[in-house]
Design goal:
With about 325 residues, this protein is mainly alpha-helical. It contains 15 helices and no strands.
Length: about 325
């Protein structure tokens, strides 16, 4: 009666353990809990990501999207100073665009914009790249000199334009005085008053302003090129220009694309430096699309026509950006 100890060892205790392992409720709970927690974690991460993205999206919509849309709508309206008092802006369709494009000076404005942009970008890029390659070599006070070259970029544009306007003055400008001292004769060049010289003078100032930006970005790109490539090329006899075209230029191409694209967009919309130097004159010789939009909107108070010119400028920038990015992508893929 009392020989329970004769049972096989452990058999009486094994049954409960087996029943627990085979319990369907317990096994289902254990297997379903981790995926549920994982889904909750993913949801929390998505909400957290949205919490960071929504403020930036609202900022873009309010301060970039709305002005662009409003500018587009305004270009199809007769929007003048009277509109601010009456609230009425009659819909005129494409009239503002036709009026702007068919105006006598529009062709010259487009030509000035093209010359100003192309010459500025090429000169800024070439000089900036040359300086970036030069400062890639270490020499005493290289950091100090490189920092001093950033000053044109740090000075406010209105201050830069005021200084250059004084330097380029026909009667008391320092540039004419220096030329007079070098030539030994009285030099009185109307840098900002001569129709044939005003645009090159404005381009010169804009190039001076843009060189630091190009040099800084290109110099940063040069730092990412491994020195081992130049050492290997030197063993094969590729130095100087051969090393530049074989190593530096291909490796710098992505950075070059960014520099050129940003430079074109910035130069196309350049306004303050031209207003500070010439105001678009003399006789419209330095008038660009940016200054034309400003003149129509805040000089003649024809905001509809000014918005039309602004939209033309935006379309030109977008077309250039798309074409350049596609061409640059093909070149990188090849």
């Amino acid at each position: 009666m009392h020989r329970t100890s004769d049972l096989p060892a452990g058999r009486g205790h094994a049954a409960p353990a087996c029943s627990m392992q085979g319990d369907p409720v317990t096994s289902t709970t254990a297997s379903s809990t981790p995926p549920r927690r994982r889904r909750m974690t993913l949801r929390a991460e998505r909400w957290l990501q949205l919490a960071f993205v929504v403020p930036a999206a609202l900022y873009l919509v309010l301060f970039f999207g709305y002005p662009i849309v409003q500018n587009g709508v305004m270009s199809f309206q007769e929007f003048t100073t009277r509109t601010f008092f009456t609230g009425e802006a009659p819909w005129v369709g494409w009239y503002n665009y036709v009026e702007v494009i068919s105006s006598p000076g529009f062709g010259r404005v487009m030509l000035n914009t093209a010359i100003f942009t192309v010459v500025s970008i090429v000169a800024q890029f070439v000089i900036g790249l040359a300086l970036a390659v030069f400062f890639r070599r270490r020499f005493p006070l290289s950091g100090v000199v490189r920092s001093l070259l950033l000053l044109p970029w740090l000075i406010p544009l209105i201050v830069s334009s005021a200084i250059w306007r004084w330097m380029l003055d026909k009667d008391s400008g320092v540039i004419n005085q220096v030329l007079s001292g070098l030539t030994g004769s009285d030099v009185s060049i109307g840098w900002l008053t001569d129709v044939n010289i005003a645009l090159p003078a404005v381009i010169l100032v804009n190039v001076w302003l843009g060189i630091p930006f190009n040099m800084t970005i290109l110099y940063s790109g040069l730092q990412d090129i491994p020195e081992e490539l130049y050492e290997a090329a030197a063993l094969d006899g590729a130095t100087g220009w051969r090393a530049f075209w074989a190593i530096t230029w291909p490796m710098l191409r992505p950075v070059t694309g960014v520099v050129v694209l940003l430079g074109v967009v910035y130069t196309l919309k350049a306004l303050d430096i031209i207003l500070g130097l010439t105001g678009g004159g003399p006789a419209g010789s330095t008038e660009t699309l940016a200054t034309e939009a400003y003149r129509l909107s805040f000089g003649q108070f024809d905001f509809g026509a000014g918005a039309a010119v602004g939209n033309i400028l935006i379309v030109i920038s977008l077309i250039f950006a798309v074409l350049y990015l596609r061409a640059n992508r093909k070149a990188v893929d090849e």
